[in-house]
Design goal:
The chain is of the alpha/beta class. The chain has 3 domains: 2-290, Rossmann fold; 383-440, no CATH class; 523-588 and 620-804, no CATH class. Helices cover 53% and strands 9% of the residues. The chain has helices at residues 2-9, 133-142, 155-159, 181-188, 190-204, 218-227, 248-256, 276-288, 318-325, 383-387, 394-403, 406-411, 422-426, 433-491, 500-517, 525-554, 561-564, 568-602, 608-644, 654-679, 686-705, 709-736, 740-770, 777-804; strands at 35-38, 43-46, 56-57, 64-65, 72-73, 88-97, 105-113, 167-171, 208-214, 234-239, 271-275, 294-300, 308-313, 337-338, 345-346, 360-362. Strands 1-13-12-16-14-15 form a 6-stranded mixed β-sheet, with helices on both faces. A 4-stranded antiparallel β-sheet has the order 2-7-6-4, with no helix packed on it. Strand 14 (337-338) and strand 15 form a beta hairpin. It starts with a helix and ends with a helix.
Length: 805
């Protein structure tokens, strides 16, 4: 530290790498005083004129504002407000092209001056030392001061730094050609600048203050030395003229010999740097309560008749400044550059407003700057790398910028480039290197912004996912605890010693008991089982006896009187069943009649042929019901007669038994098909025809196989017993069924089965009553053959029908 101070006191400074000596061209404006403030007809004030974020607009269209009144309010530490440069009316708030190399539009406030220049209320502080440190920082922030050397960094962030500052460096180099704004400011307002330096000293408490200035400004050097002669800790450091000495890192290197490495800041080395124009604005804000509403702008170039420095209000359009200096060129031919010839950029329009970082408006002549030079291929001379003050590789960066290789550009430390333009100045191929770098920087910043937004979105998504998972676990845990609580409440004993769980179980048992009591006897197996078992056993016994009789008849064995006799209980049961057979027949007739009516109503929209066939099926059903009823009465009488006079049972022909079985199967199938027709009116019409054919074949076979009246009686007795057993089952089923909606179909099937058996017995009874003679032998053979065929067909159909069911 002491060695640095010794070298500074002896004016022994360091040198930085690179640098150039372009034509200064400062003589155009250096001998002319600063012209007073000029107000245009309309001020265009961008809401963001610094590095950071824009403030919130706090005025509306049509509002009357006073000079120095804030137009925006800071919304974050990196935001500074903008103020009204004069009193007037807010005309509109709209997008406007701003001072930026991109030529993009930003939101601006349009203020129309009323030319009264009426100030808002101000609080002037003659002695800044009476103010607290935080009050001074607040005043600087409220004044909207940002770095006026070109970077635009919010000043209140810099001055509110940590202690242990070694050097406070004031940048007065102003190294770029043509620009003399700081030079004239130091000459005319050196005392105010020194007041700003003292305020910074009061805030930062540095060990030494260094004012770096180039030796091409003798008048400014003299003014500063005179203003600081009473301060031992302020040193005026006169440096040799070399561009870009005014760069932050280059000036620090020249004054202190310290290198600011890539990615680090001067504050990390205990150094804070401010521009002389910024020091002037700090003094105005803290002492006179004047916000940053104006600045000195150099309007120069050989394209103007009167180049000069002007106090320009923030928001003044460039065209008004050019008009004051009287352009020598036509409006459509002149090129306007904002900034110096090395770091400036061409404006897309002369309506672009002056902002806080604008220090120069350059209007060169056609011969002054080689604007017509066209870019050609790089010849790899390496001069750009030799003059780069940041020790970069401009040639490789330009290749990577053209290829949009952002990763490579970061490796080459693109953001260490200060856009000084030294590389482009010495390039023999006239390549605008600085323009490539600026575009690449903008693209990288945009991509980083998108990446940052993506990261924030990802973080929000992960947070939402974690929150949903946490809420899900909480719900599961809550449900588990509630379930345990309910279980504990169920198992907890009441005052009477019972639990809620047992009470619920008892209630469920009572409900089931009531439901069981409301059902028929069949729902209770304990009551229905004995009676049902008894009936089944009787039916089984009757069927067994009938089968035994048939077996002996087939073997030509005599039947014993015991087998031929009827058990008293069975006889009583048979009488009972015979009596009820008539009732069953009546029930069957009523059901058949109801079904016929239902089928008739359903078949109204069917075609005429199908309707006629369905009607025939219904008539057959009615005839079958009437026949069943008549047979039941006749069988009842015959049973009574047989009880009084037993009939001997002769031998039964085997073929007759076979024919009877075939007829029985066909009759069952016929009855089933008739029942299906009653339920489905659109069934096949061949049912009646098949039934008639089967009946005729059965009748022929019966005539052939009937040997005598005794044999017919035996067959009739067997049929009666089987009929009684079937009717017993039907009656039992009819008596115990109480749910007609669910079991109506089964009742109809049982009744149809009984009617079929009765129809089967009818040909035999008719044959016995008519006592017809046997058929001729030739006819008998043909009928027997047909009977066998019919029996085989009926058997196959019955098997097929059984499989389909």
């Amino acid at each position: 530290m002491q060695s640095i101070i010794n070298r500074i006191e002896n004016n022994q400074f360091w040198k930085f790498h690179g640098g150039i000596h372009p034509p200064e061209q400062k003589f155009l404006t250096t001998n002319k005083p600063i012209r007073s403030l000029h107000l245009p007809e309309m001020l265009i004030i961008p809401i963001q004129q610094h590095i950071g974020v824009a403030g919130d607009i706090c005025v509306n269209i049509g509002d009357q504002v006073l000079k120095g009144e804030a137009l925006t309010a800071p919304s974050s530490p990196m935001a500074v407000p903008v103020h009204a440069p004069t009193s007037g009316t807010i005309e509109k708030i709209a997008l406007q092209v701003i001072a930026h190399p991109s030529g993009l539009s930003e939101l601006c406030i349009f203020l129309k001056p009323d030319h009264k220049d009426t100030w808002r209320e101000r609080n002037i502080c003659a002695d800044y030392k009476t103010l607290a440190r935080n009050e001074i920082v607040h005043k600087i922030a409220e004044a909207g001061i940002s770095g006026m050397g070109g970077a635009g960094f919010p000043t209140h962030i810099k001055v509110d730094s940590k202690p242990n500052i070694d050097f406070l460096i004031i940048n007065a180099a102003e190294c770029e050609p043509y620009i003399t704004a700081d030079d004239l400011l130091m000459r005319e307002h050196s005392a105010t600048i020194v007041q700003g330096v003292n305020i910074l000293k009061h805030l930062l408490i540095p060990r030494m203050v260094l004012i770096g200035i180039e030796d091409n400004k003798p008048d400014a050097i003299a003014s500063l030395k005179k203003a600081t002669e009473s301060y031992n800790d302020i040193h005026i450091c006169v440096l040799p003229t070399k561009y870009p000495t005014g760069g932050e890192k280059q000036l620090i290197r020249a004054l202190t010999g310290k290198e600011i490495t890539s990615g680090s800041l001067p504050i990390h080395q205990g150094i804070v740097m401010q521009n002389v124009a910024t020091c002037f604005a700090i003094a105005e804000a803290v002492i006179h309560d004047t916000p940053l509403i104006k600045r000195v702008v150099t309007v120069s170039g050989q394209g103007l008749e009167k180049p000069q420095n002007i106090w320009a209000a923030i928001g003044t359009p460039v065209k008004d400044l050019v008009a004051l200096s009287k352009s020598l060129q036509a409006a459509d031919k002149k090129a306007i550059i904002m900034g110096g010839p090395m770091m400036g950029f061409t404006l897309p329009s002369d309506h672009v407003p002056i902002v806080k970082t604008t220090n120069c408006v350059l209007v060169p002549s056609e011969k002054e700057l080689a604007l017509e030079n066209k870019e050609v291929e790089c010849i790899r001379c390496g001069q750009c790398a030799d003059v780069c003050p940041s020790r970069l590789l401009p040639q490789e960066m330009q290749w990577s910028a053209k290829a949009k290789d952002h990763a490579k550009l970061k490796e080459l430390n693109l953001f260490d480039c200060i856009d000084c333009g030294a590389c482009a100045f010495v390039c023999p191929s006239h390549i605008p290197l600085v323009q490539y770098y600026r575009v690449a920087k903008a693209e990288i910043r945009q991509q980083e912004l998108l990446d940052l937004k993506a990261e924030k979105a990802k973080a929000r998504f992960e947070a939402r996912k974690a929150r949903l998972e946490r809420e899900k676990k909480e719900r599961i845990e809550k449900q588990r605890k509630a379930s345990e609580a309910r279980r504990a409440a169920m198992e907890e004993k009441s005052g009477e010693g019972s639990t809620a769980k047992s009470a619920v179980a008892a209630a469920l048992a009572r409900v089931k008991a009531k439901k069981a009591q409301g059902k028929d006897v069949i729902e209770d197996p304990r009551e229905a089982a004995p009676e049902k078992d008894t009936q089944k056993s009787q039916v089984a016994a009757a069927i067994a006896r009938a089968k035994a009789k048939k077996a002996k008849a087939q073997q030509n064995e005599p039947v014993s009187p015991e087998e031929n006799s009827v058990h008293p209980d069975e006889q009583v049961e048979a009488e009972k069943k015979s009596t009820d057979a008539g009732k069953s027949a009546k029930v069957a007739a009523a059901i058949a009649k109801a079904k016929a009516k239902k089928a008739n109503s359903t078949k109204r929209d069917v075609e005429t042929s199908e309707t006629n066939k369905a009607d025939d099926s219904k008539k057959s059903a009615k005839v079958s019901a009437a026949v069943a009823k008549a047979k039941a009465k006749k069988l009842q009488k015959e049973i009574g007669a047989e009880e009084q006079q037993p009939t001997p049972i002769p031998e039964v022909d085997k073929k007759a038994n076979v024919a009877a079985a075939v007829a029985k199967a066909k009759a069952k199938k016929q009855q089933k098909e008739v029942g299906d027709d009653e339920q489905q009116p659109s069934s096949k019409p061949e049912v009646d025809k098949k039934a008639k054919v089967a009946a005729a074949v059965a009748k022929a076979k019966a005539k052939k196989t009937a040997r005598n009246v005794t044999q017919v009686a035996v067959e009739k007795e067997s049929m009666v017993e089987e009929l009684q057993s079937e009717e017993t089952t039907i009656e039992t089923t009819t008596e115990i069924i109480v749910e007609p909606d669910d079991k109506k179909q089964r009742i109809a099937n049982a009744i149809a089965k009984a009617k079929a058996k009765k129809q089967q017995a009818q040909p035999i009874a008719d044959m016995a009553s008519s006592n017809e003679e046997e058929l001729p032998k030739e006819d008998n053979k043909a009928v027997a053959k047909k009977a066998r065929i019919a029996a085989a067909v009926a058997k196959a159909k019955a098997k097929k029908q059984q499989e389909s069911n």
